[in-house]
Amino acid sequence: MEITIEKRIGIPSLLTKVKTAEEAAALIHDGDIVGMSGFTRAGDAKVVPLALAERAKNENIKIDVYTGASLGPEVDQRLAEVGAIRKRVPYQGDPVIRNLINKGEILYVDAHLSHNAELVRQGIIGPIDFAIIEATAITEDGLIIPTTSVGNSPIYAKYAKNIIVELNVAHSDTLVGVHDIFIPEEQGDRQPIQLLKAKDRIGEIGIRVEPEKIQAIVVSDQTDAPSLIVAPDDETQTMANHLLDFLRGEIKAGRLTNKLAPIQSGVGSVANAVLEGFKESEFEDLEVFSEVLQDAVFNLIDAGKVSFASCTSITISEELQKKVYGNIEKYADKIVLRPQEISNHPEVIRRLGLIAINAALEVDIYGNVNSTHVSGTRMMNGIGGSGDFTRNSRISIFVTKSYAKGGTISSIVPMVPHHDHTEHDVHVIVTEQGVADLRGLAPKERVPLIIENCVHPDYKQQLWDYYNEAVELTGGHHTPHNLEKALSWHVNLAKNGTMKAE
Amino acid sequence: MEITIEKRIGIPSLLTKVKTAEEAAALIHDGDIVGMSGFTRAGDAKVVPLALAERAKNENIKIDVYTGASLGPEVDQRLAEVGAIRKRVPYQGDPVIRNLINKGEILYVDAHLSHNAELVRQGIIGPIDFAIIEATAITEDGLIIPTTSVGNSPIYAKYAKNIIVELNVAHSDTLVGVHDIFIPEEQGDRQPIQLLKAKDRIGEIGIRVEPEKIQAIVVSDQTDAPSLIVAPDDETQTMANHLLDFLRGEIKAGRLTNKLAPIQSGVGSVANAVLEGFKESEFEDLEVFSEVLQDAVFNLIDAGKVSFASCTSITISEELQKKVYGNIEKYADKIVLRPQEISNHPEVIRRLGLIAINAALEVDIYGNVNSTHVSGTRMMNGIGGSGDFTRNSRISIFVTKSYAKGGTISSIVPMVPHHDHTEHDVHVIVTEQGVADLRGLAPKERVPLIIENCVHPDYKQQLWDYYNEAVELTGGHHTPHNLEKALSWHVNLAKNGTMKAE
């Protein structure tokens, strides 16, 4: 269905604001702080940032880029390549910008995704000069209808001095109505967030803005860059089976029913593959309350397993994009997109009692998790929402293969060299080897479960050797460590290319 | 005012349950799980656990002890000494039990204090055989009125198979009405917690129990062990001044008013001394929404600075005990005691937008905080509620003197050897040297603020040397570290008695 620009811009006076990407990009000044839509490749501002990157080739321009989460493969890359980014907040996932962050050329603030809105509200980050928001329409009563993500767009639009809308005509207008935009009051005057079930709607269908703040409307027709999900393999299938068995145990223990509890699943191939595992399970009438809906969720909706899914972003493969956006009316009453402040809000997560499933980079023998830093120093992507969900969930589960790089790296180490989730927050660890349920256990009770159930056989004895020596050295302290060797596995990896002891 | 036992036990049939401490202790079996009242010395079960410890001298009896937080100086000590504790949950602060935890003889689960109730509710910890609750009365409609703390008593009483009440007659009946007992529904059916202001009351004045679960009522008249607060000194006064100046800056920036925001202040002498500093400040009509009310809060109420204080426990010095409990009617409408699930609830903390002030054991150059483990291995007390407050507060502030043990220890180190609060959660660090405001900053932006503003002069250059070498080694990675030296300060301390480089 083709819809004219006029039909998509409900306020006639705004038609005079229609500009080219170059004209819109010209409004932005060196030193500006720009809040962009976009969350894990979905619904990101596409054409104006690229026009700005072009401009920055011949002009000294450096901006701070705030987003929901990661953008598509082009924007961060192009802006970073031309040196146009001073500071990046609160998540990224692009190799080019990642390299520049790890060369010290771009400042990066890696923050809990639910915290971002509070920082803007308080003026800790900002003031925001421009919000650039991808939209599918502007309604006659002044609502900007987002596309495939909501992210931080509502809070950026609210606090920005100026707004640029990227009107994306690639989406049909059936996206109208799938969003639920609610912004909490200021702290001190704040009311409870009246979201009691995953499917509850508490806000408006779009982002309410003052139309006079809209400085430009740029028409685009680029679809989101598809996700790069890697297909499930034998090991992710095994991990999924372990997870399903663990959940069956919870039902047997009387803690869950066959409907489980609303599920959050982190971003990436492993989390997606594990979630795919639910398709062949006996669980049913499942609800998803997550940050990002990946392919697996739509496959589970199709399979009749998932009855409702709440998110802040839809990040799917090319095949799924065709299927979902070509039949959005089929899914429209089964999904809702919310601001990331709400999808990740501790109040809501704790109330609903989520089962949170996130991927770990590495885990240590006491259950601390590193989600972000390769060898403790090199930023990978960021913590994203994993902390929001992990801390407040009913059951926080971390999944990781027990090894990486052909076995030269063990994903379970004596001490993680960077801590994103501490022992206080990590409930369950799942690898292809098995499951360690750490809930209610003291550190010394966790060690045998983690080593015996989760570690790759190549590293079991080596971890036991570390632990036993640490116990002896400390005389059995609460959390035995040998500080001279706690990080030696990573040192060994850097020097000899392997964590394996000689 | 003396009140007869009959007046304190509103249900006549329960008078037959009045027993001696020894008789009550005899009800408990080897292997039982016992949930006790008590939170930082306040309102703890006193006589029955001691009778149990006596019994355990001649009998093989080992129980799991769950509490609100730490108990008075005797109970943990005596039970631990006779080997009667298998597992201790979720906080302790006694030297004797601490030693046995660090010898591997007692298992200890160090948990976020707001998480405890969920673990009981789910049956992850438990089932609870006995709840032993100190009370000032049992009302005719079956409410147990707690004394000077609420802690986890409501959830333990609800889920315990049996209840023993320690009826403490040392308190007058004017404690009736200062508690507000609310237990959230099960996750999945849970409603919003309707607590919108620090002073809101949302529950009942006591713990509603089935009277038939009460197996014994033991009369006692022991008051709480007074707190051991150390008086403010020049350095804590300087820290208080730094903190007040920081808050003045927040007002100037338009982020706070003269009334600030509800204040949470951690347990211990440093946090208390810093809070005392508000007495001479220009701030007024302050609210406290905290875990424990220490001396400073009552002094601030007397000084007309604090208008209302919410807590789960009142832990005060002997002098203050006389003043407060001798004139409880003076304070009764200015305080409320809640279950720790509510005083520490992320939903409420995030909604109210607290200013959280907690003490750190040590901090690293990126803002990670160790609150619990001396040199990364030896448990001190526990994380307590610091994580509940820190993660969800408007401003999370950590206070610590910049050095310890006569300067042989720097409280700011290259990398903390145990992580309780990560870089994602720590906003502001205050030492006697100054303030580092880390909000919205990248790791490399935090380093100079922490080193220049907070570190003792003796260690500044040594930290710069570490950092500069790490930057060079990694080529400027996001979080530069030299993993071979990251924990070397603690290794040096263990070997040479000092963190100072030669």
TrEMBL record, chains A, B:
Active site: E291
Domain Acetyl-CoA hydrolase/transferase C-terminal: 322-466
The protein, known as: Acetyl-CoA hydrolase/transferase family protein
One GO term (biological process): acetate metabolic process
Keywords: Hydrolase, Transferase
Cross-referenced PANTHER family: ACETYL-COA HYDROLASE
Record flagged with keyword NAD: no
One Gene Ontology term of the molecular function aspect: acetate CoA-transferase activity
One of the Pfam families matching this protein, by short name: AcetylCoA_hydro
NCBIfam families: YgfH_subfam (TIGR03458)
Start and end residues of each Acetyl-CoA hydrolase/transferase N-terminal domain: 15-218
Superkingdom: Bacteria
Family classification: Belongs to the acetyl-CoA hydrolase/transferase family.
Species annotation: Lysinibacillus composti
Binding site for CoA: G266, V267, G268, S269, V270, N381, G385, K405
